[in-house]
Amino acid sequence: MKQALVGARIFTGEDFLENYAVVVAGEQIAALVPVAELDESIPQILLDGGVIAPGFIDLQVNGGGGAFFTNDTNVSAIATMLNGHRPTGTTSLLPTLISDTREVHQAGVKAVADAVAAGMKGVLGVHVEGPFFDMARRGAHNERYIREMEQADIDWLVASVKGQHDFKVMLTLAPEHAAPGQIKQLTSAGVVVCAGHTDAHYESVVSALKEGLSGFTHLYNAMRPTTGREPGVVGAALEDANSWCGIIIDTYHVHAASARIACAAKPKGKMYLVTDAMSTVGSPEKSFQIYGETIYEKDGCLVNAEGRLAGSAIGMIDAVRLNTEWVGMELSESLRMAALYPAEFMKVDNYLGRIQSGFRADLVHFTDDYRVTHTWVAGDFLRHS
Fold first, then answer.
1. How many domains, the chain?
2. Measured between alpha carbons, how far is 187 from 157 in angstroms, rounded to an integer?
3. Which residue segment(s) compose the domain that 146 sits in?
4. Which of 4, 10, 181, 365 has its CA 20 to 30 A from that of 141?
5. Are residues 290 and 225 located together in one domain of the fold?
């Protein structure tokens, strides 16, 4: 059954369209049509202004809806996270595991693989964040789990993506703690390797890029900064034209000027928004357990007892709003950073990240004051207010 979405500006992923309709047929976008040319027999959903945009894609989601994935590595927790983030405009995500034992990570990856195999729309794969980090840059990750990567780790990660097409595995590691050739083993098999929680010098990062490292996790945070004599991780990330950088825009993790500098330095399309969200997003509960310690949300900020930032308390619509109104990016670019660019990074931009005929009907409608009112995931419609 077809439906036509009318009454809002449409952002296609490239441009804004006025007086157009999005025609949805089942799970797919059937057409973009001027309202004046719309077949009157197609039922209409009338939207009261605002913007329809491609559904947001969040590549770093630790929790949501009251579930914290590392503590609860099962399919039901993934569904809870999806439901918790959907009212913020997120229609696809990578459930993220923080540093823990190999057994916990294997259980989490299996749960995500099971969710994808069961047809759970909105799950692109899994992000394994740690534990192969630099101790000095571990952030809120518990020191007892930080360790060097072993061949057994590489073997099971490679096995998790073998023969998979629609299941993405992202691994964040400190490149200076990877032996020569280890990153190449992972990337050659299809694992997406990113640098994060790293004290690497510039030369180490350049070597990792040559082995296939393709991303940087929460740029600026938990990584060696740039100085005049030592470009560090940040300098290597900003210099490299081919890699992608995720960035947390919540007013706590990164200064607005630093975000503008990064966006100016990287080629267009290589910076994308992430939330690094914890379980409080989409939940009335404003605290959660991490490594047995209770973390409280206060004024939108999460810190542990050591005073270290412990993820964020924002959803993607918050990141879009802050990137536009606080950082100063154009709304069109903020929307690309929330959908098109992460889709390109994950190589799913053949069906996600744009409003285009034949693409999956993953959509978000929000008001001019950034309140999400409707979402569609593979054509499945939810009203949020």
1. 2
2. 10
3. 56-345
4. 181
5. yes
